[in-house]
Every structure is written in C-alpha cells, then in structure tokens.
Amino acid sequence: MVDLGERSYPIYIGAGLLERGDLLIRHIRGARVAIVTNETVASLYLETLRVSLGNIASDVFTMPDGEAHKNLATYTEIMDFLLSHRHERTTTLIALGGGVVGDITGFAAATYQRGVEFLQIPTTLLAQVDSSVGGKTAVNHPSGKNMIGAFYQPRCVIADMDVLGTLAKREYAAGLAEVVKYGMIWDAEFFEWLEGSAAALNAREGDALTYAVEASCRVKAQVVASDETERGLRAILNFGHTFGHALETVTRYERYLHGEAVAIGMVMAARASVAYGTLDDNAVERLKSLLASLGLPVTAQSVDREALREAMGMDKKVVGGRLRLVLSRDVGSVFVSDDFQSSIIDAVLTD
Amino acid sequence: MVDLGERSYPIYIGAGLLERGDLLIRHIRGARVAIVTNETVASLYLETLRVSLGNIASDVFTMPDGEAHKNLATYTEIMDFLLSHRHERTTTLIALGGGVVGDITGFAAATYQRGVEFLQIPTTLLAQVDSSVGGKTAVNHPSGKNMIGAFYQPRCVIADMDVLGTLAKREYAAGLAEVVKYGMIWDAEFFEWLEGSAAALNAREGDALTYAVEASCRVKAQVVASDETERGLRAILNFGHTFGHALETVTRYERYLHGEAVAIGMVMAARASVAYGTLDDNAVERLKSLLASLGLPVTAQSVDREALREAMGMDKKVVGGRLRLVLSRDVGSVFVSDDFQSSIIDAVLTD
Q: Which backbone phi and psi does B347 adopt, to 5 degrees?
C-alpha cells in the first residue's frame, strides 16, 4: 500500500496475479478500458489479461518496443487512439509492459480529458520495483529524459512474479540494479541479504524474487509517501540517476538499458562520495562487487566525458543553476548535497 | 481567493494592477520566469509586465493569435522553448493573454518537468471571468475542444481592468456571455443587475465592470472550491457549453468566438429546458434579450444540424455513453440531467 491519503493505492506482489480477474475488476470503475502495451509483451500476456477482464470491453494500443518511443509523438498517437475510439472520462487505462509503457500510459491517463484512472501491470523487474510505484509519469524530450510529465497515481499496481521468467537476461539484470539501489540508499540489512542471495536471484528463484520486490517496493512506498511531489526526501531515489541519465542521453538511449546506466551511475555517485569525503573505498568495492555478481556493468566504456558533463547540466535535479547530487555516507545511507566542489565530479568523469 | 486548501490562491481584480510589481513578485519563487503571450497582447502589455518584474529575468514565448493554435503542436514548441532556455523546476510561467494563452500555459506548467508554478494575467474579459479561474488547463484536439489537459492551479490571478479598454468590441461582448452565464446558473439578483446595467457595461464603465468581474469570479470560485476536479457541482459551469462547444467544432473554431458560441449555446440549453418542461418561455426571452442587448448572437445561422449532433456525441461531458446536459429551471438555477428524451435536443437542433 502506498499511503497518499485519498490517492492511496495497493501494490499486489505474487505469482499468478495476471489471471486474477477479481483483483483487476475491483479497480475498474467504468465498462471500458484501453490497454497500452508493446509488441513483445502483447504476444506474451495480452490474451491472459483480456480473459481476466471478462465482460469489460478493451481496446488495445500497441506501441513499438523501446525507450526511443517514449516521446511526445507516441503520446500524441495514444491521444488520437483514445479519441477515435471515443473513450470517455470514465475510462480506465491499463499499462501492460515495462517502464516505458507505464510512464507514457500514466502521462496519457494524467492528461486525457484532464485525467482518467489507470492501472499498472509492470512486466519487467525494473518497472515492478521502480517506475510503477510512486506516480511519476513522463515522456522524454530530445534534450533530456522525463522532461515532460506529471505526478499522477495509479489505482493499483499488479506485480506478477510469473512474468519475470520470460525476461531477457540483460533486462532482468537491469532491474536488479534498482533493487541494489534500495539497499544502498535505505536498508543496509537488505543490501547484505542481496550480497548473500546473488546466486538465487540470478536463478530467478521465486521466494528470493518475491522478497526482493517486496523489500524494494516497501522502501520506495515509504519514501514516496513522505514526499509525493519530490520536494525533499524523494530525491534520494535518484541515487546514481544524475550520472545514469546523463549517460543515457549522450549514448542516445541506445547503448544502455536504464538499469545498466543506473548501475554505472551508482558507482560514479559512490566514487564522487569518496572524493567528497563521506564514503570509504570499501563501500564502493562492495557496491561494484554486488552489481558485477548480478551481471551488471560498473564502468562506462568510451563515452565522451565533455558531453556527459554537458548532459548533467540539463538534468531535472538542477536547482537554481546548481547541480544537486545524491551522495552516500555508507551502505544504507545517502544524503542530498548541492554544496560540493566540481572536482568531485571531475574525479569521476576523468578516469 | 479560491479556497482549495493547500492549493488556494488569490484573484486580484482592479485598475492598474499590471504596474504592481509587488503583487507579481510576491508569487514568484525563483529568479527566472518564462512569459507566454501572443502577438497582439505582447505589443500592448509585454513591456509593462517586464518593467514590473524588475530584476527577475524573463524569457518570452510569443505564439500566434487564436484558438486554432491551442494545440499539441504549439504545446510542443513551448516545451522545446523552455528546455532550450534551460528553465528548471523552480521556474515560473506567466500567462499574459486571453483564454488560449492561459489554457496552454497552464497545461505547459502542469507538465513541464512534472509541474512548475504559474501565474495568470488574463487580458480579455472572457479569460478574467472564466478560464483564468478554476485550474482547468488544456489544449484542443481535432476531434474536440480541451480533450487534452490537466487540473492545475495557478499561484495567483491578476485581472487588470485597464487592459479591457483595448479589447475589440466583439471580443469584449464575448466575455459578457460568460458573465451572463453566472447570473443564469447561480444568482438571479446579479442577472437582474445585468439587465439594468447593459448600457454601462457596453460603455465599459469602470465601476460596472469591476462589479461584474468580481461577482462572476465569486460564483466561479465558490463552485470550483466545492468541486475542484469536476465530479459533480462544477458541471453547472458548463451551462450552454455542450451546445456551444459542438457549434465551435462544426464551424472549426473559425466563425464564432468562444463566448459567442456559449451565448447561442445557452439559448439552446434554455430552449431544451423548455422542451424538458422545467423552464418557461419568459425566461428564455429574458436570456435572449439580455444577450442581444450586450451585442451577442442568440441563434446559429446555416449550421449543419447533423454535424452538430455528431459533435455533441464527442463532448467530454458524456458519461457512460449518455449525454449529460445542464438544464435550467429558472433564471439563477440550473441542474444536471442525463435523463431526458433526445427529442428535447431535436427540438433545439431542428428549428
């Protein structure tokens, strides 16, 4: 449960949930829904979802796969689709897919006829532990990620563990990057559990996976509940993301999956924290070692460092012309600072 | 003051307010603003506004005049503009113009980096009494008006009576249509005052104008405060708008100003109310007579009635496939109904 007063909503985590029509239907007010999904996910899970919806009429908008399509052009197509199918203010949008589908569907729901309801059915590990929880919706702009969007909460999130079995190895690992983040920013005990559970997680063992997703969602929900629109604490969720987003921008969202960029970004943020003087080298090594054991990259190869610096200047977390960074003081503990020498960034960018 | 808890904001109404830098600056948090305006308004008031802003740095986005430009294309240009000028989350957008500028600027503010602050400086009578108050922001879609948008409140509204002196006669009269609406839906006494003040209003006498704007904003603020996101009571503000929007759609936003379409739409709604059995002919005559005395049209000439019917099917106020209409039971009193024979609409559309 994400506790946001009248905008509170439940997160269901477990196996076989996509077949649970009762869970879905409980959160649909009208007689119609519009499902937004992508080509890959549709071929795997669309039929199951439609069977679970029973008598509720569904239209399906299928977008191409990939972050490159999370833009105003696809958003405009969704608006055209909803209007041409005459969806009304009582409609419900269902996001069936990964973070791209969830973010753009949420933004569509936030702005279609000034706001309709939506459900999140995240089908990647990354989306289950990150983008589907917290109400951040957005599309990208050529000059930066998530530059256009809204804070808008779903009616519920349904995270079915069974869908993770079909994920490509690389995409699955990318999701684990955010799981590691929750340990790193909030919960040292969970971080230690992860260090001891790498093999089980790599094997996608059901119990380990359910625990990892629950623990991750719990951290995220606590942080979001205390700061819905990112005025303060919520910024800590961006640990590794300022560097990671810049990395994605300069590589035009083509080279790295988001989670991979975040993995590298977290190592950069940890190294900046060492340069800042709050973190010791041992913690950086533990972070690198855990990420590597989960099949994640920990350094960026042949990236233009000047372009990276430039891209960081455009990041949304810039306040009043100064860059704000989430830095670490230990495994399980981070803080936000805009009071640092640019040399701590140089130290990270020039190796 | 519009009372919406933590989203409450003041409406300032009076002469010479555009020169009141103190009013403006009090509601600007950061060191930068972006002004969105149009060509006509910029030539008249932009310089005054920038002087009032004093040390606050302003970038100006000037859009072409007219409802035809309140679309996703212009919205996208505003996003590009803000990003290329590196506006951050602490920026403030200022809408300097009529309803088109206010609506699109509000939507831009609602969605730029998931929401930045904005101020409304409405420069038409229509915008002062209607679109600038209530937090509805939107752009149009080829299949209907305001189909894409958000509920998003400004930090304040500054309605300067002096700017109304330069309004074209037709545009000024269009604003009076919404003023009449407030009397018709909520305040019979105000309606009577309007009947006795047509000459003063047509002469744009300062005292009459200030009273008319204050009374109008008071009605709107009361209704909005009781129903921010249009779940119930707020629907009464749409009196005349279902017909009016349809009229604008079928004439492709070219023939009528919004207020003119609303004037005709209110007469249609009143006549539908007579057909429904709740209103007497005398009230329709009073409405037509008041609108005509203020220089407004009261019937639509040579409009395709079938196209109009079709356009009404697409209106946002449709719930569960049934059309909801705001009908009248007397001057100063309306109600919402979806329980009527289509013959009451036929009666209006077939004359």
A: -60, -35
